[in-house]
Design a protein that fits this description.
- The chain is globular and about 50 Å long.
- Helix 1 runs antiparallel to helix 10 and helix 5 packs parallel to helix 8.
- The chain has one domain.
- By secondary structure, it is mainly alpha-helical.
- It contains 13 helices and no strands.
- Helices cover 78% and strands 0% of the residues.
């Protein structure tokens, strides 16, 4: 690898780590904003800002939209909207840190959903990851009476939505421009949010124009949604899949770190152990340990 290629890969990895940091801090912004902005209205603002700005940036590409890609963008928009809706509502009833970690369950779910669709069973790494994830979820979320609070349940449903979203993205981006699909799904998610917000959350929120809320919505729209999507799409092209998955999975770690630093949330030893097991499960499912010496030739196990 040339020096130039090494520098490009290094910058790409920094970009992906930056994406994880942006997403991790977004959990704090969402948690703080929910006091004044109901979940669906928050999504309406967030997706509108991201789709409009991104659409203007790539306006020439958007002129090539046809009926087929429009329908596919709508399908992706449904999954994206529902996933974010369950995640955001869930954040009302659980901590930002738990919300961040439980969301990552989608990484473990994707191979099993592919199994249902393609009849191709997941490998041994995914099976072990699933067991670790279940134990981790139990340690992180189960209460003394062996029940889970509604926020944790909604966050897990969100993870299922993200898994379906990833599967359909993989299917659609093989035949269509991923940038166009990104803009369309964000646009449709915004439309669904505006339509359902009055029914789910009532009238337009009075605190929408508070300076702190405006700043929060700009962060979620421009950084956590628009910029993060762009960084992910661009940077993954110039680094290895294993490095990308490792760096992006740090989102959950940053989510917990920022929730402790900025929200004063506390993690019990049992919850920390649950987070560790979930993180190991995500790494195992995404990389199959191929970043370790002696494992590179065993990725097909």
């Amino acid at each position: 690898m040339s020096t130039k290629e090494s520098k490009i890969r290094f910058l790409a990895n920094i970009g992906l780590l930056g994406t994880a940091i942006i997403w991790g801090f977004a959990f704090v912004v969402v948690k703080n904003s929910l006091d004044l902005i109901p979940p669906t209205w928050m999504l309406a603002f967030r997706f509108t800002i991201a789709s409009v700005v991104l659409g203007l940036i790539f306006i020439k590409r958007m002129c090539t939209v046809n009926r087929e890609i429009l329908i596919q963008g709508a399908v992706l928009g449904v999954f994206l909207f529902l996933s974010y809706l369950f995640q955001t509502i869930g954040c009302q009833y659980t901590t930002a840190g738990k919300n961040a970690f439980l969301t990552t369950i989608y990484v473990i779910l994707v191979p099993f959903l592919y199994w249902i669709i393609s009849k191709s069973p997941p490998d041994a790494y995914c099976m072990v990851a699933a067991v670790l994830a279940l134990v981790g979820i139990g340690l992180l979320s189960l209460q003394g009476d062996m029940t889970m609070n509604v926020g944790d349940v909604l966050t897990l449903i969100c993870g299922l939505g993200y898994a379906l979203h990833m599967i359909y993205i993989d299917r659609y981006t093989k035949i269509h421009d991923p940038v166009i699909l990104t803009v369309l799904q964000l646009g449709f998610a915004a439309i669904f949010s505006w339509i359902l917000a009055p029914f789910l959350d009532g009238g337009f929120p009075a605190g929408a124009f508070e300076p702190s809320i405006v700043a929060g919505m700009l962060y979620l729209g421009l950084l956590s949604t628009m910029l993060a999507f762009l960084l992910q799409n661009v940077c993954q092209k110039y680094t290895t899949p294993n490095a990308a998955s490792l760096l992006l999975s740090m989102e959950s770690v940053f989510g917990v770190l920022f929730s402790v630093l900025f929200l004063g949330e506390r993690m019990t030893p049992r919850m920390i152990m649950g987070c560790v097991l979930l993180f190991i499960a995500v790494i195992l499912a995404e990389t199959k340990l191929s970043f370790l010496p002696g494992f590179k030739k065993r990725e097909d196990i």
